[in-house]
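Lecture notes, part 5. Sequence design as translation. It can be helpful to think of inverse folding as translation between two languages: the language of shapes and the language of residues. The source text, in structure tokens, appears below.
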């Protein structure tokens, strides 16, 4: 971190409220799985929805808000008698810094990505970055202090995200180093159908247990097991990106979490159902 940035942080009217802007993959078992394929992921976690007082998820549904990944893993561990935890407080602090002190946030982001790149290369891994870990912001449009986007500033780094923004997911003009996967909710079935019909990918959360297999096919499209790693930019095209419900999503009943035993899904072991997927 350079001296000017240190001085800017020292001048804030309150402490940053977090130690790291980007969470390295060692803290997240699923991200860590990417190392086996030669990648090191770093992820930015904001406080999702409007938990910080700023809404960072324009197209969120009631179901995804209630079942957000924010409550998976360490983020969901709250001690008896308490209402929050340090992980949640750090996510709120990052979000507030983004909205209230953008120049400092931008410098910290550049610094954190540079550090992630250096560390990854040292370990013989390819650095990749997911900025919407628990948010849905248009990073391909937001300008850093140099007047360029983060993708333009780091052209050799691959960025990837999930989004519920239907237009953004369908954009053909995204930066070459930015990969987006559209994400299903209980309110966007038309967009899901349109994006799959046009050859895109859609992430679907299934009420499937941690050790059970996902359906083979959903609505006629091949399902891949996206819990094997987080490297969505390596996925084949025109597939359903299958995820198992985690955190509060387990037992969620709004329709955000899909029933793997519904007629729209089928299993390789079920001889009663036609398990042939569309050709991609
Ligand atoms: S699931 Fe995504 S869009 Fe929904 S609240 Fe969480 S981060 Fe926001």
């Amino acid at each position: 971190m350079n001296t000017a940035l240190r001085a800017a942080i020292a001048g804030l009217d309150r402490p940053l409220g977090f130690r790291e802007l980007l969470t390295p993959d060692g803290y997240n078992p699923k991200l860590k799985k990417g190392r086996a394929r030669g990648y090191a992921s770093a992820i930015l976690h904001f406080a999702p929805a409007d938990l910080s007082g700023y809404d960072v998820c324009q197209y969120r549904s009631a179901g995804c808000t209630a079942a957000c990944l924010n409550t998976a893993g360490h983020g969901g561990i709250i001690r008896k008698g308490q209402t929050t935890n340090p992980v949640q407080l750090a996510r709120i602090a990052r979000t507030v810094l983004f909205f209230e002190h953008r120049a400092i946030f931008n410098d910290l982001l550049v610094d954190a990505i540079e550090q992630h790149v250096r560390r990854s290369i040292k370990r013989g891994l390819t650095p990749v970055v997911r900025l919407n870990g628990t948010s849905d912001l248009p990073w391909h449009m937001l300008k850093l202090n140099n007047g360029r986007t983060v993708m333009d500033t780091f052209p050799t780094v691959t960025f990837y995200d999930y989004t519920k923004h239907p237009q953004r997911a369908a954009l053909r003009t995204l930066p070459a180093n930015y990969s987006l996967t559209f994400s299903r909710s209980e309110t966007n079935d038309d967009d899901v159908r349109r994006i799959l019909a046009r050859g895109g990918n859609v992430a679907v959360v299934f009420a499937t247990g941690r050790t059970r297999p996902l359906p083979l096919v959903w609505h006629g499209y091949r399902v891949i097991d996206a819990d094997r790693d987080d490297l969505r930019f390596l996925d084949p095209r025109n597939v359903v990106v299958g995820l198992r419900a985690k955190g509060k999503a387990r037992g969620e009943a709004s329709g955000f979490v899909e029933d793997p035993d519904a007629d729209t899904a089928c299993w390789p072991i079920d001889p009663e159902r036609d398990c042939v997927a569309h050709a991609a």
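The translated text above is only one of many valid answers, since several sequences can fold into similar shapes. The radius of gyration is 19 Å.
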